[in-house]
Amino acid sequence: MENTLHRLAKDLANQSIADFFAQDVNRFDSLSLSAGGFLLDYSKQYLTQDVLNSLNDWAAQQGLFNKINAMFKGDKINHTEGRAVLHTVLRAPRDVQQAILGQELASEVAATDRRMAQLVETLHAGELTGFSGKVFTDVVAVGIGGSYYGPKVCHEALKSYRQHKLNVHYLANVDGTAVVGKLEKLNPETTLVVVISKTFVTQETLLNATALKQWLLDSGCDNQQLNKHFVAVSAAPEKAIEFGVAPDKVLPMWDWVGGRFSLWSAVGFPLACAIGNENFELLRAGAYEMDQHFQTSDFLNNMPVLMALIGIWNCSFLKYNSLAVLPYDHLLRDFPGYLQQVDMESSGKRVDVNGEEITLAIAPIVFGQEGTNGQHAFMQLMHQSHQVIPTEFIVALEGHSQFIEHHRVLVANCFAQSEALMQGKTLVQAYDECIANGLSEQQAMTLAPHKVMPGNSPSSTLVFDKLNPKIMGSLMALYEHKIFVQGAMWNLNSFDQWGVELGKQLGQTVMKVFDGEQDSKLSGSSQGLVNLFKNKHNL
Ligand code: F6P
Questions:
Q1: CB 268 within 8 A of CB 231
Q2: pLDDT tens across 237-252, in order?
Q3: Helix or strand (DSSP H, E) at 328
Q4: Catalytic residue among 184, 357, 376, 517
Q5: Is 504 annotated as catalytic?
Q6: String of b and e for 204-236 (b: at least 16 CB within 10 Å)?
Q7: What is the mean pLDDT of residues 1-12?
Q8: What is the pTM of this model?
Q9: Please, what's the b/e burial string for 64-92 (b: 16 or more CB within 10 A of its CB; e: otherwise)?
Q10: How far is the CA of 7 from the centre of ligand 1 (A)?
Q11: 302: Cβ–Cβ under 8 A, 6 or more apart, which residues?
Q12: Is the CB of 265 inside a 6 Å radius of any atom of ligand 1?
């Protein structure tokens, strides 16, 4: 089947996306799909019905249906860590949770949800106070990677759904400047710190949490009162307690919830603090709706599957190895950053589950930012360089502000970009344009080549009505599943991240060398850089 796809990719050489539209006036209708509050227009992709049929056959051949079921029912598909991958169960109704997790574990999940919701309620009711007896006004969520991106991206997206005047902040970066920046905005007497770490050994998170602890102590909080200011979310509750968090303020998570898919667990606590329990439940409901669509729809009518198959077609067969994600929605401007983690940490692999090398490019480099700003930055390269960069546009039909004209301009830009990327501009068109602008023939011939755009750059556009908690949940689940399928098709484990672990190990090594230990494994370059730092700080 892969050979067929390679052949089909070659066959496309003499046709363009624009040709497909000329041949089929109904292309938009046949190559668009609605689900979970979204319309996906994939008619501007560089593919034919034959390509889609072959991708569909290949998906069947790869056992995709069974792989999807295996994930949902809790098989240990993260085989390198011996874990199930069950973030989906956290947004499922209680009876489904019981069927999959069993009575005991399902009760633990339900109890954790209740505790989390109660904590949100008591905070909102002003019943929790800090060391000086003042009511908490601010929550700082300390966590990194999967313990940060999910809540943060939803927090920004759902700002207008903020339910309470409690301010929620996030601290991820292990950079003193970031800590200072947060502390400047906060009053220690009224700040609750939520330490989010699945393992509770992550260096960045623990250092930041310790800095906040010291800040509280320096501000007059004594040791006995300190635990009033801390909540933790962790799959290692004993470590959180050892850190100083009161046992009744530790919300558990489980090893069967992957970090970058953990928003749906108590990792979402800071988000629930901001948008309220009801909206948090709507977020979960939106994700559950997408889960059901994903589990039950046939592949070519299944939005996450289709997006993944198209992504693989672009990356592995057409050899376009990057993907621009461009939300035309200010509230979604953090979404590409979130997606970089969830996609590239999941799919950035080189071997399949059997340890066999996969020789084709598996998944793209993901990048992006809010669309209009991207237009005035990297999109020049997308229009005119030799590199073809497929794009996913994300746009709301309705905005959140009263500036109606702004929204018209925003949406017009989005639609225009996908058109420009597809149509491009030929030399003849560029030349004629120059002549029409009053240039001489000689001037037109000189200038025209600079105005040529090859076009034929594929894109999809994901349209929704208006951003709300349910849509946001659906969007997050859509991409989670897209990424799962991307991995499943190449038979890889999307749920480990050994590359990241190597960075963590070597980080420890360098720290030891700072402290005077010798390490012959460090290269001359790194040793030179270490010496520079040590000289600067007289180490
Ligand atoms: O970024 C790498 C990573 O391993 C992620 O998978 C994880 O979400 C993050 O570190 C933080 O880990 P923890 O939640 O254990 O602190």
A1: no
A2: 999 999 999 999 999 9
A3: strand 322-328
A4: 376
A5: yes
A6: bbbebbebbbebbeebebeeeebbbbbbbbbbb
A7: 92
A8: 0.96
A9: beebbebbbebeebbeeeebbbbbbbbbb
A10: 41
A11: 35, 293, 294
A12: no
**DSSP label of 425:** B
SS3 at position 79? coil
Distance CA 271, CA 262 (A): 12
Partners of 450 in the β-ladder: none
Q: Which of 9, 100, 44 is nearest to 390 (CA)?
A: 44
Atom of ligand 1 nearest to the CA of 259: 8
Segment 70-98, tens digit of pLDDT: 999 999 999 999 999 999 999 999 999 99
Q: How many helices (H) and strands (E) does the chain have?
A: 24, 11
Q: Which atom of ligand 1 is nearest to the CA of 260?
A: 8
- Full 3-state SS string of 215-247: HHHHCCCCCCCHHHHEEEEECCHHHHHHHCCCH
- List pLDDT tens digits, range 114-141: 999 999 999 999 999 999 999 999 999 9
DSSP letters spanning 519-532: -TTS-HHHHHHHHH
pLDDT tens by residue, 300-320: 999 999 999 999 999 999 999
Amino acid letter, residue 482: K
Q: Tell me 311's DSSP state.
A: H
Q: Which one is catalytic: 10, 185, 406, 504? A: 504
The angle at the Cα of 204, spanning 200 to 206, to the nearest 5 degrees, equals 45
3-state secondary structure of 140: strand
C-alpha atoms less than 13 angstroms from C-alpha of 524 in its C-beta half-sphere:
0
The pairs formed by 33-37 with CB atoms below 8 angstroms and a separation of 24 or more are 33/301, 33/303, 33/306, 35/290, 35/293, 35/297, 35/302, 35/303, 36/286, 36/289, 36/290, 36/293, 36/303, 36/474, 36/477, 36/478, 37/286, 37/289, 37/464, 37/465, 37/470, 37/471, 37/474
Which of 345, 370, 392, 480 is the catalytic position? 345
- Binding site membership of 199 for ligand 1 (Cβ less than 6 Å): yes
Burial of 438 from C-beta contacts in 10 A (0-12 / 13-18 / 19+): exposed
The Cα 1–Cα 341 span in angstroms is: 30
Distance CA 529, CA 539 (A): 13
Confirm whether 73 is a catalytic residue. no
CA-CA distance, 306 to 304, in Å (whole number)?
Answer: 5
The CA-atom distances, in angstroms, between 325 and each of 15, 46, 339, 394, 470 are 25, 17, 9, 8, 21
